Amino acid sequence: GNAPRLVVKTEGSLYDLTAATDQLRTFEDLLRAAAIAKESIDTIADRLCEDATVLSSDVLDETPPSAPVSSGEVWAAGVTYRISEEARKAESGMPEMYLDVYESDRPEVFFKATPSRTVGSDESVGIRGDSEWDVPEPELGVVLFEDEIVGYTVGNDMSSRSIEGENPLYLPQAKVYDKCCSIGPCIRSAESIDDPHDLEMWMTISRDGEVLYDESTRTNEMERSVEELVDCHVAHDAVPDVSVLLTGTSLVPDEGFTLREGDEVSIGLEEIGTLSNTVVEV
Ligand code: DO4
Ligand code: MG
């Protein structure tokens, strides 16, 4: 049916935790159960897997997972990779402000999306009908619970470069609109990732079966650490218990490229997974 189920993927198997205990239907439920038990999410999930139903690995192909965080807010950091700083300077009428933010102590952190504007893997992401130049932004997503990093996910900070380029004060319109954000396909627990600052990241964009963009990079190209971005995100602001912070785009298609309805965007992050979305005009 449409009721959410919580699934844990280990190296070998897939487990349905909702079958083990009807209390756990979302990732947020798992976070709260771990907090009450004063255990890590890995420890509690490992224990629950002993009583959980084992699922066939085909289940996730037949029923793609929805966005793995369904409450709270998504925020995003910007201009954290040199490639993003250069792209922004090129598109903007006010280029110097982007160099300032790349180099200054205070990073750029902005509000990105509510759950109502966020989609999961295999759902559609939006481009605005009043925008002429649109790109996906592949980003490492940090998942926070009560201001602590509990996991990582893959994010797509869909952006209108024409609207942002026209005037920086239009940034909220370039960034926040229907289906502007995608996260998924899963959350990888923080304790199971060796180093979030050294992961390969790649993106492909296909149109009518033809690959138009295919590039990769590593998160070690990021100018800032995830801890530094999180500290800035939660300072002086009571962010919701559960929130996702995207950490800035690491790949930017060439200037001549804009997304069109029907394009397929896939963003992969080593050790986490691949987030795939089809583009729709909103
Ligand atoms: O400064 C505008 C947004 C930057 C951004 O989203 C990024 O660098 O990823
Ligand atoms: Mg971005």
Task: Give descriptors for this structure.
single chain; about 280 residues; alpha+beta; Fumarylacetoacetate hydrolase, domain 2; 2 domains; seven-stranded mixed beta sheet; five-stranded mixed beta sheet; 9 helices; about 25% helix; about 35% strand; globular; binds 2,5-dioxopentanoic acid; binds magnesium ion
Strand segment count: 17
Give the topology string: H per helix, E per strand.
Answer: EEHHHEHEHHEEEEEEEHHEEEHEEE
The major pleated sheet works out as: 7 strands, mixed
**Are there runs of 5+ residues with pLDDT below 50, and where?**
none
Walk me through this protein's architecture.
By secondary structure, the chain is an alpha+beta fold. It has two domains: 7-62, no CATH class; 73-281, Fumarylacetoacetate hydrolase, domain 2, CATH 3.90.850.10. The protein is 23% helix and 34% strand. It is built from nine helices and 17 strands. Strands 5-4-15-9-10-12-6 form a seven-stranded mixed β-sheet, covered by helices on one side. Strands 7-17-16-13-14 form a five-stranded mixed β-sheet, with no helix packed on it. A three-stranded antiparallel β-sheet has the order 1-2-3. A hairpin with a 2-residue loop joins strand 13 (200-207) and strand 14. Helix 2 (27-37) crosses helix 3 and helix 5 runs antiparallel to helix 6. It starts with 6 loop residues before the first strand and ends with a strand. The mean pLDDT is 95. The structure holds 2,5-dioxopentanoic acid and magnesium ion (MG). Residues 76, 78-79, 84, 88, 108, 137, 157, 171, 248-249 line the site of 2,5-dioxopentanoic acid (DO4).
